[in-house]
Amino acid sequence: MRFAGSTLFAAVALVACASAGARPAGAPDAVAAPAPQEAVRPAPSVADNSPKVDHDVPCPVPRSERAESVGPPPPHRGPPQPFLPSPIERWRSALEGYVRRVTLVNERPLNVSAVCFAVYLTEMHKRIHPLFADSFLASLDSLSPGDPMNDQQLTTRLEIVLTRDGHIQQMGVVRSSRLTAFDIAALDSVDRAQPFGPAPDVIVSPDGFVYMAWEFHRNEVYACSTMGARPYLLAPH
Q: Is 22 exposed, middle or buried (0-12, 13-18, 19+ CB in 10 A)?
């Protein structure tokens, strides 16, 4: 039985060696070839519905004659400057019965032009801020706390239409503060801050003009901040 078992073991070993392939005595063990890797399948794509912004769109800022940066964030305060308001006759058409040019019917999405609009509005603010916040609002400090001009809720909204070169083509009050003197101060500030410099083509509407609405606040925290500015693009006729 011992012989038979040895013979059987030798036979099994011979079959194993044959299946592994003959190699010379003393040769190192063969290295097994790596198992084939299963191809890695890419993860299923997920639709990206977020708005695409083309950062290569040229957004030139207005020319070098624009106002320099005006300092720290709100509340803004600079050296008081005299602010002389215009007579009401100067702005009567902008104050009474002004018909806004931008409506829900003719407005279209900004898309990539939003980036350039943000740059342009920031440069506009640098020119408007010294006039409205540092000059006009600062001049109100001499008034009594109960004066109507010191009502911190006063807000007026203007529609501003610019030419391609940054001059005002039309402007009017689309939401009044109900205090004519405050509305006039907002109109005067924008008017005296122009020109705002050439506008990038992507923010110019098909009719050749640049459109926006801008809020002006008695509260110095908001004042004429770009947070209250809303740009528009008009749809083609």
A: exposed
The correct CATH number of 106-234 out of 2.40.330, 1.10.287, 3.30.1150, 3.90.70 is 3.30.1150
Task: Tell me how far apart the alpha carbons of residues 102 and 213 are, in angstroms, rounded to a whole number.
Answer: 9
Give 207's Cβ-side CA count (13 Å radius): 16
- State CA 50 to chain mean position distance: 14
Give pTM, 2 decimals: 0.69
Q: Tens digit of pLDDT for each residue in 152-197?
A: 999 999 999 999 999 999 999 999 999 999 999 999 999 999 999 9
Cα 188 to Cα 126: distance, rounded to the nearest angstrom: 15
pLDDT digits (tens, 9 = 90+) for 70-95: 344 444 444 556 789 999 999 999 99
Q: Which burial class, exposed, middle or buried, applies to 94 when counting CB atoms under 10 A from its CB (0-12, 13-18, 19+)?
A: buried
